[in-house]
Amino acid sequence: MNTRLDRSSTHAAGASSAALGAAPIVAALAPVLGAPAVQRAGRNSRLAEQRRAAHWALAVSASAQGLKALDPALDERGAPLPFGAWHWSLAHSRALAAAVVAPQRVGIDIERPRHSRAGELVLDSDERALLGAGEQADAFLVAWTAKEAALKWTGSGLQGLSHCRIRSHCLEHAWEVQVPGYVLWVEIAHLAGHTAAIALEHRPEQPIEWRLLPACPTAERKQP
């Protein structure tokens, strides 16, 4: 699919700062077609379908900001490169892909429930008390997803996990997560049997809109 921004658009990288953030941030989630059948077809087929779904979600999120599309380029670490004043992030599970475009640095993650105690390894005693991990069945999943989104915001990936801490509970579905040099606003959502998180340096002026999409249109799926 065509994910490259028309640079002649008035909404391209040169858009005025006053226009940035005029629309709410839209986090788009798209189903991975063929799941679970594609999952059995092999890793390459699975990754191709996840990529298509992620780029479809990215196009929808970009459109919500008045952008025709984005140029999803990566740096040498594999972290998203901003396009002018616009930032973006992608994530996927086996069944869903997620994408977000924002006028500030952003990270997104999406996870499905797993029967694992791995989350316990990334929480210290203060975080456990804050999350009420002994009372909430999904506390570890929330913590893991929040930290993954924050680490995507930093661009460091999981190697920065030991320096990432959940610091406080702001609202019912929002947390402050500390990474080196910053305290991030991380919003959590539960959609379609998944837990998703978006990390931002600044709390958005308008509520984040979480949008569950239909499958990627057939015409878009024919593109490489």
Low-confidence stretches: 1-18
Instruction: Provide the spatial order of strands within the biggest beta sheet.
Output: 4-8-7-6-5
Order of helices and strands: EHHEEEHHEEEEEH
Large-scale geometry: globular
Helix fraction, binned, reads 10-25%
Structural class comes to alpha+beta
Question: How would you concisely characterize the structure shown here?
Answer:
The protein is of the alpha+beta class.
Verbal overview:
This protein is of the alpha+beta class. The chain has two domains: 124 residues, no CATH class; 97 residues, Alpha-Beta Complex (Ribosomal Protein L22, Chain A), CATH 3.90.470.20. The protein is built from five helices and nine strands; from the N terminus they run E-H-H-E-E-E-H-H-E-E-E-E-E-H. The protein has a five-stranded antiparallel sheet. A four-stranded mixed sheet has the order 2-3-1-9, with helices on one face. A hairpin with a 2-residue loop joins strand 7 and strand 8.
Tags for this model:
224 residues, alpha+beta, Ribosomal Protein L22, Chain A, 2 domains, 9 strands, 24% helix, disordered N terminus
